[in-house]
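TASK: fixed-backbone design
INPUT:
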């Protein structure tokens, strides 16, 4: 009787209260449970849903009709959408007349993701821009055929504040000009890999879109003239110019005298940028929070180290590929107390002493990249573990001198660790994984080429690290079916798995993998014992599978591919 009374109280809640309850559900699984309770709860979910990601284009019309209050629509998984489909979705017949009007779902839409929608062209884009008066953000990245006509169509969305056009390869200065003139409220623009953009387009953009706060021109062949134009942007906070081969120190001297609010800059892999330009940049922007100068510096000079003393608010610095000394680490440790991330990938001269000096002062580090720093040993790992208790991400690829002793320290003190890369760390063994399994917050673990681990080590991880969603055991020859059995029972949230060339894995092991319902990305190259039977188990059980790599699985035949065609409705790439 009390249970019945409790249920009656729930069902007597008004629609307004139920909507407010629904708004408190942040997890998609919680919202799914909510709408499965009863028809009324399902109706409330439809009314209250603000965000929708569609996986199958055939369900799109009914979904849009059910969810009229959408603010964000993600169609990146529907590459076949085209102008004709858009026309059908946008229009409806007004009741009582033969006239057409825009569909209800368009009224409040603010965010639209059309990434990889290669079938869509300017006609469909123009209809979307005109039908959605509240549109503020559009993502058409990786629509490689998009060009100036499509940019002109997008310019009809005059309220646009964010636009992402990465790898729209046919976009030129003409299309960029249309956007600059039509979208004067633009605050965030990404043009990564738009190779036809030149200094002329960037200059007009900077003159028209004076409210820009975020600009990404990575991989473009623009010159220092563009940096001179960018310097006039008084509100710019984020500038990304990764791998722009034609900019150099002269251009950074222009930025020194402009962009007063600049907080984040990325000039990594810019071949012409060196210490002189970076020092000028730092001199003009003492409030920098993030500085990415990876593969720009051959070494950390005394003048550069002296300049970073002024960056009291610096939280992130990447100096990958530079030669660095122990004394340099002491300077960073003393003057950059606010650092939460440092990138030292492939730096020459990184020693145990240097790392000890670094972490003695930078105790708030949460992300540390030591990829290919071959000289560090367990002593450095012990210092990191003892000083950086808030460590979340640690990258140690090819650090071959790390052993179970270092992992013991991490498992004892770095209990917040979520991501660790131990690829090609030959000293890692099962005992080390037992220690590491104490880090129960782990979500990403990379163990590729760790040939000294076995099913026993994987069992430790599976038993204690239930939150793992990405696991890489590439060429771990000691891993077999038993390890995958424990993995499938302990790591139910696994979404990405690489077990390529784990030659002991058979169809039985893939049967266990089929129990991972959330798995979306599976690499299983070179599994010589696997046949179509194993692939059937994966296809039937992993309904969310989107990316599958099964090269060199020579025994997989028609049966396996038939199963993929039958069950794997979300598969994008094989």
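OUTPUT:
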């Amino acid at each position: 009787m009390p249970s019945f009374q409790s249920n009656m109280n729930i069902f007597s809640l008004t629609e307004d209260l139920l909507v407010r309850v629904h708004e408190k559900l942040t997890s998609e699984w919680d919202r799914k449970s909510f709408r499965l309770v009863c028809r009324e709860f399902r109706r409330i979910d439809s009314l209250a849903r603000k965000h929708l990601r569609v996986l199958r284009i055939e369900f799109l019309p009914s979904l849009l009709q059910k969810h009229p209050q959408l603010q964000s629509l993600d169609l990146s998984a529907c590459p076949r959408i085209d102008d004709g489909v858009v026309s059908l979705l946008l229009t409806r017949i007004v009741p009582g007349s033969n006239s057409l009007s825009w569909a209800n779902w368009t009224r409040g839409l603010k965010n639209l993701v059309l990434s990889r929608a290669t079938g869509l062209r300017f006609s469909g884009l123009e209809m979307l821009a005109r039908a959605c008066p509240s549109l503020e953000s559009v993502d058409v990245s990786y629509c490689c055929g998009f060009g100036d006509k499509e940019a002109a169509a997008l310019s009809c969305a005059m309220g646009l504040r964010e636009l992402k056009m990465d790898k729209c390869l046919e976009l030129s200065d003409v299309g960029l000009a249309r956007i600059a003139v039509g979208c004067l409220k633009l605050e965030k623009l990404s043009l990564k890999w738009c190779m036809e953009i030149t200094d002329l387009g960037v200059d007009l953009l900077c003159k028209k879109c004076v409210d820009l706060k975020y600009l990404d021109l990575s991989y473009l062949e623009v010159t220092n003239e563009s940096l001179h134009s960018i310097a006039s942007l008084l509100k710019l906070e984020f500038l990304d110019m990764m791998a722009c081969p034609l900019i150099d120190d002269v251009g950074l001297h222009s930025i020194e005298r402009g962009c007063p609010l600049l907080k984040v800059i990325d000039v990594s892999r810019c071949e012409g940028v060196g210490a002189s330009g970076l020092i000028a940049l730092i001199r003009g922007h003492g409030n920098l929070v993030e500085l990415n100068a990876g593969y720009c510096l051959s070494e950390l000079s005394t003048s550069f180290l002296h300049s970073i003393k002024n960056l009291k608010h610096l939280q992130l610095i990447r100096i990958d590929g530079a030669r660095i000394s122990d004394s340099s680490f002491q300077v960073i440790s003393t003057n950059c107390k606010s650092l939460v991330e440092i990138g030292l990938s492939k730096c020459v001269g990184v020693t145990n002493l240097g790392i000890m000096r670094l972490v003695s002062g930078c105790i708030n580090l949460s992300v540390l990249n030591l990829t290919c720093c071959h000289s560090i040993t367990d002593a450095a790992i012990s210092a990191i573990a003892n000083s950086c208790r808030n460590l979340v991400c640690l990258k140690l690829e090819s650090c071959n001198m790390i052993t179970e002793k270092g992992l013991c320290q991490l498992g004892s003190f770095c209990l917040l660790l979520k991501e660790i890369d131990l690829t090609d760390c030959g000293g890692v063994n099962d005992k080390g994984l037992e220690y590491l399994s104490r880090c129960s917050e782990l979500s990403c673990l990379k163990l590729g080429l760790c040939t000294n681990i076995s099913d026993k080590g994987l069992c430790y991880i599976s038993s204690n690290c239930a939150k793992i969603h990405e696991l890489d055991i590439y060429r771990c020859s000691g891993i077999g079916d038993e390890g995958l059995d424990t993995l499938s029972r302990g790591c139910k949230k696994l979404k990405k798995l690489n077990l390529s060339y784990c030659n002991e894995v058979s169809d039985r092991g893939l049967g266990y993998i089929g129990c991972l319902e959330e798995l979306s990305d599976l690499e299983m190259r070179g599994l010589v014992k696997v046949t179509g039977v194993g692939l059937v188990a994966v296809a039937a059980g992993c309904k969310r599978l989107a990316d599958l790599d099964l090269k060199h699985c020579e025994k997989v035949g028609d049966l396996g591919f038939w199963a993929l065609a039958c069950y794997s409705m979300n598969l994008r790439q094989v």
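COMMENT: The first strand starts at residue 51 and ends at 53.
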